[in-house]
Amino acid sequence: MMIEALSVIPEVFDPYLSASVLGRARRRGVFTFEAHDLRSWTHDRHRTVDDAPFGGGQGMLMMCGPLFEAVEDLRARGPRRPHVVFFSPCGRPYSQALAQGLAARDRLLLVCGRYEGMDERAYELADETVSLGDYVLTGGELAALALIDSVVRLLPGALGDEQSAQDESFSDGLLEYAQYTRPADFRGRRVPEVLLSGDHAKVDAWRRESAIRRTARWRPDLLDAATLTVLERAFAGELAGRAEGEGQDG
Length: 250
Fold this sequence. Notes:
Strand order of the largest sheet: 2-1-6-5-7
Distance between the termini: 50 Å
């Protein structure tokens, strides 16, 4: 996969994408990455990419001129047209399902906003606009890094254990099951005996139940869309109802 970012501070990407899991995946050629400086598509000596908003207001807006030139130029490069992603509070809420869809793309171009936002006309360039949540960041670079991380780990060869990405939270609509490591007994808090039994079928069953219990407790909003059997859905509903009742009692 080819991933590119368009930013006014392109230097922020490389340290993170050269480290740990992503760094190893990048060195193995699982994905390539290039950050482009939006100022390369300006035509004044100050390399201006922002201006005051019409109608007044606080802050500055990214001008549509450099954005249009940059995206159009980058789209024309190479044999594969990029899937262009913008970041905005009005975008589609980011999710694991969306990450999986983006992981199937050959080339991504992530456009990072800055300042108070972008000229509204620039959003015409987006194939997709996403939001990481109902909060405000200084710029789109952190959102782009989060997206890259979530997408790359889904690519074949990115993780040492190919099963890891399949077992993680949200892979089937549920939170991941509870996990434990040594020691088996820490200050009287013992690891569930089934995990020490060596019986893989029982461990799998326990993990499935644990995932349902954790989701019902922490994120009951996920249950409606989760992949569950009839019996599992009834069990999840009972747990969620119990948790809601305990919350009201408190």
